[in-house]
Structure formats: structure tokens, C-alpha cells
Amino acid sequence: MIRDITLGQYYPGNSVIHRLDARTKIIATLLYIIELFIVNNFWGFLIAGAALAAVIALSRVPARFIFRGLTAVFLIIAFTVILNLFMVDGRVLWQWKFLKITYEGIWRAAFMGVRLVLLIIGTSMMTLTTKPVELTDGLEKLMSPLSKIGVPSHEIALMMTIALRFIPTLMEETDKIIKAQQARGADFESGNLFQRAAKLIPILIPLFISSFRIAQELALAMEARCYHGGKGRTRMNEIHFHRGDAIAAVLMVIYLAVIIGSRFITFNPF
């Protein structure tokens, strides 16, 4: 399950999506997230899903690799769906004591489940198709106007990129700790929920120690390379907008218009 987390990982490739400017992909991801919360019916989700499927096909990242990332957050999705299924008032379909399922609850649970799935896959596509260095440069370029008012855009971009980059590293470290504990006879599967939660303490303590060790090694490596912030720094590869980015911008505007238009669709086959 630890290995199934795809957020923060980069999948090497030379597809149309890989070649897009990092700024284009960051803006597209932010717009996609906002538009998922604009959607108010399943027609909007159908359009968002079709757009996401097109991006996945163009990226040439295996769909199985992308959907594997959902297994790591399955419990969060399931908890959200179940919570909405039993906690929404409306026309009662089934009831047992204080538990009840309503038609409105089924609708809300399906609505939230689809939204979470699209949200997770959509945000993963940005990191899967963008190198960490390009992501840092893109974030810094987008936030560069804020540096005129004293906002440390380079440091913020670097911090966000390092956080994303070290998600897979920490997951691998967690996997190693779990296997080491299991080799010593630890059992993380048996017992009730509270007992299993208590068994995570032997994992969390070494993980915190390992995290601080990795952070210290990174700080020493940056100091050894004379890193003193973004002022006066140059880049080996400058990022530039190309024709593909212009086409992507036009498609984003069309997609935004279609999503806004889908809010006014009143026909509901469900």
C-alpha cells in the first residue's frame, strides 16, 4: 500500500504533456481543482472525467500506474462516501435505529466520491509529468511578481517542491521500517482499530528520526554547494512558453466555459 502512493513521483516520458511548460501545468491543475468545486451535477463530472482521460492518454503514463495511487487513499474516499451516505437528511430509503440511508445521501455520497477520485488523479498528473526542478522553476516564475512586495518566492517554491519530492522518499522509508518491524515479529494486522493504531508507534518514532536525518543531510548538501537563497541565482535550463502551451491555454479556456455551462443543465438521468 505504501508503494501505491503516486503523488510526488515523476514518470519519465517525452509526451505532449511532458513537454508543456511547468507553469502551464501548474495553472491547469489549479483551474481543474477549482472547476471540480464549481461542478454541481454529474454532467460536469462527466466532462471533467473526459478531459482528464484525454490528458492521461496524451501523457502516455500507464493508466494502471495512475489508478494505483487511489488504493493508498481508499480508506479516506470510503470514509467520505459512508459519512455522506448515512449523515444526509432527506427521503428515507432504509433505516435501522439511528442509521438511515436517504435518496439525497446516495446522491451526495456518489457526488463526493467521484469528486475525490478526479481530484486525486488530476493533481497526480502534474507531478507525474513534471520534473521537480521544472516544478520549482515554474512555481518561482509564477510567484516572481510577489517578490517585489517582499515575498520570498524562490524559497516558497523550493519548500513546496522539496515537500512533494520527499513524499515518495518518506513512503519508501516507511516501507523499510514496516518490513524491519515485521521481520522482528511485529503484527500490524490483528486487533481492533485502537490496538492497530497503538502498534503504529514503533513505526512513527523511527520515521520521525529518519525524517530529521534526511532533512539534515539535505541542508548539509545545500550548504556544501553554497546555496544562499534565490537572489542572483541562474538556471541551467530556462523555461519558455511554446506553441503547445498556447494551444493548451485555449483548451483550458474552452474547458472552463463548458464546465460553467454544465451548471445550467437541469436534466438529470440519475
Please write out the topology:
Elements: H1 16-19, H2 22-38, H3 42-59, H4 63-71, H5 74-87, E1 92-96, E2 99-102, H6 103-128, H7 132-143, H8 153-183, H9 193-198, H10 201-224, H11 243-262
Antiparallel strand pairs: 1-2
Helix pairs in contact: 2-6, 2-7, 2-11, 3-6, 3-11, 4-6, 5-6, 7-8, 8-10
Description:
With 270 residues, the chain is mainly alpha-helical. 67% of the residues lie in helices and 3% in strands. The protein has a two-stranded antiparallel ribbon with strand order 1-2. A hairpin with a 2-residue loop joins strand 1 (92-96) and strand 2 (99-102). The radius of gyration is 22 Å and the shape is flat. It starts with 15 loop residues before the first helix and ends in an 8-residue tail after the last helix. The mean pLDDT is 85.
Describe, in short, the structure shown:
This protein has about 270 residues and is mostly helical. It has eleven helices and two strands. The protein has helices at about 15-20, 20-40, 40-60, 65-70, 75-85, 105-130, 130-145, 155-185, 195-200, 200-225, 245-260; strands at about 90-95, 100.
- Regarding quaternary structure, how should these chains be classified? single chain
Structural class by SSE content: mainly alpha
Mean pLDDT across every amino acid position? 85
Report how far the terminal alpha carbons are from each other: 34 Å
Poorly predicted spans: none
Strand order of the largest sheet: 1-2
